[in-house]
Structure formats: structure tokens, C-alpha cells
Amino acid sequence: MRRLLPVLALLPLLLVPGTARAAGTAYAPLDRPGPVLTVPAADLRRSLVCTGDLRARTPVLLVPGTTLTPAQFSWNYARAFRAQGRPFCTVALPRQATGDVQVAGQYVVNAIRTMHARAGRRIDVVGHSQGGMVPRWALRFWPDTRAMVDDLVGLAPSNHGTVVAAPVCVTTCPVAFRQQVAGSRFLAALNSRAETFAGIDYTQVSSRYDEVVVPNLDPATGSSALRVGPGRPRNVGTQQVCPLDAADHLALGTYDPVGYALTLDALDHPGPADPSRVPASVCTQLLAPGVDPATFAADEAALLASLASGVAGAPLSTTEPPLARYVFASGR
User: Fold this and answer.
1) Integer CA distances (angstroms), 281 to 215, 233, 236, 292, 318, in order
2) From start to end of the chain, where are the E strands?
3) Where are the strands (E) in 117-208, listed by range?
4) pTM over 0.90
5) What does the pLDDT look like over 168-208, one tens digit per residue?
6) Which residues are CB-contacts of 257 (< 8 A; sequence separation ≥ 6)?
7) What is the CATH number for 216?
8) Is 12 inside any structural domain?
9) Is residue 10 in a domain?
10) How many domains does the structure of the chain reveal?
11) Which residue among 223, 252, 257, 271 is least enclosed by CB atoms within 10 Å?
């Protein structure tokens, strides 16, 4: 409960009413080339930081969640990947991923293209919360990126937003929060025509104790699940592997050993993660590999501080941002 209280205190800000999609909206064809990136090239370059030789083995792009920075991975996944000799990159989304997710998507497009060019092969992508969802915006509206990605692993991804709503955004709310509520125009566009694409393995990991992306009681039908399209998706709940796993939203994207085990299984095998391959010993672990028990309390405190600073510095809006012209069949 000590760990959950700061998150629960901020929860009403995260769960805001969305805007329903307009009936009859025609979205862009799946194969239409993506638009030119409008974010300054210098900003895109600075946002991507890589570790290790990207040509040595398949590199992984780590994408942080809303209100967070790549530092959320520095004390868990990054440590574990360094120990394995696994090359990886992190991408910093603008305003700690609290601004327009359409803009954040351009940073991910650039990251995928840059890593693919440097590696000379398909890359893997692992993201938490918005970070698990926003790569799908890149794949949906920039089709060239689809041939550059092998695996997409979403940890508590907000693929269909959240149905929990609170009347706290009658006036203003952070932009990205509005876009991630079930029924938003953004989510309707994201999931238009297809949710998955051929040649990509999708592993969507959820927990029934997620208090932000709701509902996820059933991993097959919950908010994180992917179902439509020619890709290879697998929706798995951590409790399917370890019935007593108690991961909440932040834990699943940082230190939960079950989420980590499923991620590694997806990265190291053809196809999406297979829960049957995860050893039972994972259920006896308290922390994922890479997490130092001696610094865990301080690392978690820094994570919560980052979340709070992200909320405090978030751009506010009274309405959901308009969708870009390239989203629609009639515009570019």
C-alpha cells in the first residue's frame, strides 16, 4: 500500500473522459505512405540514446510510459540487457510523454528507422503503458516501419485506453491523458482498419491488478489486448503464469519478474511470448533481473518522483487535440 498510495493519489488525473469517434469517419488506407516528419531533426536525434553494438545482435528499443522518461528502464531492463550483452536504445518522448501522442509517434518512427539502419536488421520494441501503444501509431501511419520491426512487446499497454472515467477534467487535463481514454478520437484512429500487421509478433502483457489501464481482468478481451489484423498477437496476463503475481501498472513496466520473463521469451524465440516456456521458478522471484534489492527503494522513489514531475509539467487542454490530416483517407 505504501507503494500504491502516490499512484492512487494521481489516478483521478489519469482517468479522464474521452471523446467518442465521429460516425462514418474514413481513415487512411493501411498501405498509404506516411507523411514527412515535422519534428525538427535535431530533436529527433537527441531523443535516441543507444548502448552497445546494434549490429552484434537484434537491438531493442525501450519506450517509456506517460509522465515518465527513459530513466524508468535504467535500474531494471537496461541493467539486465547490459549484463546480457544485448544492445538497446531508449527514446525520450516530449514533455515526458504527456503531450500530443501523435507527435510522440514521430519520435518512435525516427527511432525505428534509425535503429534499423544502424543494425542492418529488424529490431525489437518493448514499451510500457503509452510506450507499448505509441509504436503502434508509428506502424499504423508510417507503413515503411512495419518491415523494420520483428517483435513488439507491450507491458500494460494502453491499446484501447481506459474505461474508468472521473469528472475531474471538466476544464483542463494533460493532453496525452485525454487521448488514452476509451472512446477518444485518437484511439479510434489508432485501431482503425487493423490492430496488427503481417510479419510482426505482438506480445501484450497485462495484469488484473492494473489500476490505470482498465479493464484488464481478462487478458484476451481487456484494454491492452490486440485482436484484429494479420500480425501474430498473443495477449497474456501475468496471473496466467503466476496466479499470485500482484503487479500493478508501474510494477509491470519496471520490476515485475513475470512481465520481464514474458518479454525475454518474446525477444529470444520466434513468434510472440509463450507462457508455457516461462519456468515456474519465476513465481518465486520478488524482483526482475537487473533490479538491485539494495537500491530498489530509492529507485522506486525516483520513479514516483518522475511521475509526479511529469504530471506537474504536463501541457493542459480543455479538449482532445484534433487528429492530423494524414489520419484520414481524404487528407495528407
Assistant:
1) 28, 25, 18, 19, 48
2) 48-51, 60-63, 88-91, 123-128, 149-155, 173-174, 201-206, 232-237, 316-317
3) 123-128, 149-155, 173-174, 201-206
4) yes
5) 466 788 999 999 988 899 999 999 999 999 999 999 999 99
6) 282, 285, 286, 287, 288, 289
7) 3.40.50.1820
8) no
9) no
10) 1
11) 271
